[in-house]
Amino acid sequence: MTREMTIAEKLKELQTEINGICASVGRDPKEVKVLLATKTVEPARIMEAINAGYRLLGENKVQELKAKAEPLAAANPEWHFIGHLQTNKVKDVLPHIKVLHSLDRLSLAEELHKKLSQQGKTLEVLVQVNSSNEESKFGLPPEEIIPFTKQLKDFPTLKVKGLMTLALFASEEEKVRPCFKIMKSLFDQLKAENLPHAEMKELSMGMSGDYKTAIEEGATILRVGTKIFGHRQYPDTHYWPPKNS
Ligand SMILES: *Cc1c(COP(=O)(O)O)cnc(C)c1O
Questions:
Q1: Mutate-to-test residue for ligand 1 from 41, 130, 131, 207, highest number of ligand atoms within 8 A of CB
Q2: Residue 227 and residue 38: Cα distance in Å, rounded?
Q3: pLDDT digits (tens, 9 = 90+) for 24-39
Q4: Residues contacting ligand 1 via CB (< 6 Å)
Q5: Which residue has the higher pLDDT, 172 or 24?
Q6: If you take atom 12 of ligand 1, which residue's CA is the nearest one?
Q7: How far is CA 134 from CA 220, 227, 242, in A?
């Protein structure tokens, strides 16, 4: 007789796999964190993951994050925002998040800095890279990443911690790997710049379909949803609408 694995069992299996991939490429598994992408997942099921020891959570929509933050507050998760952030939602998201993974434009940096300054706070941010150069995806093209990151020194409330990408073709390794290599190269170049405002510690890349390749290419944060929580009811275009819609 077979039964569905529990969330805790799936996490254990994932961790074992991560440890194995790290061993195969000589990386320390402690360098690779799992961020659970919890869009559409209800708080009770997220609680199962938190109880299994996973407290890094990522949401794509401000409303959904706000709705889950309260019922999960007692468990003290660390929220990351991983969706496209509209400028007019900045004030709503700031009270909840430790890290923004999707900084992709100066106007957003300006608004974040304005609100953070008023509150006397800082925010950890990752610059989002359009590593596959696809028209419909958010993120800055690779050639703009270094100048953009340098410009962020004008916004001292933003603590740049690294880069993030949403790779396409998750099932096609030969297309995904070059995207991750571009990411690692940009990451290393920025690290070598030793910018005081950009510490470059995190490389957020790899999802359920491509985390193995991401670890091999240097990811430090994997963003995993379906692999742990099962398939979502909504298509991903609901969460990542085409740029011009
Ligand atoms: C949904 C989502 C993920 C996780 O995707 P899965 O394929 O379900 O693992 C990762 N990153 C972002 C930005 C997402 O929106």
A1: 207
A2: 11
A3: 999 999 999 999 999 9
A4: 37, 39, 60, 82, 166, 207-209, 223-227, 239
A5: 24
A6: 82
A7: 24, 25, 10
Residue pair 224/35 in contact by the 8 Å Cβ criterion: yes
Ligand 1 center from residue 225 Cα (angstroms): 6
- For atom 13 of ligand 1, the residue with the nearest CA is 82
The average pLDDT across 224-245 equals: 78
CA 240, CA 224: separation in Å to the nearest integer?
16
Given a contact cutoff of 8 angstroms between Cβ atoms, the answer to whether 160 and 149 are in contact is yes
Q: What is the pTM of this model?
A: 0.95
Report how far residue 161's alpha carbon sits from residue 149's, in angstroms, rounded to the nearest whole number.
10
Compute, in angstroms, the gap from residue 40 CA to the centroid of ligand 1.
11
How far away, in angstroms, is 196 Cα from ligand 1 center?
A: 30
Atom of ligand 1 nearest to the CA of 83: 13
pLDDT tens digits for 69-107? Answer: 999 999 999 999 999 999 999 999 999 999 999 999 999
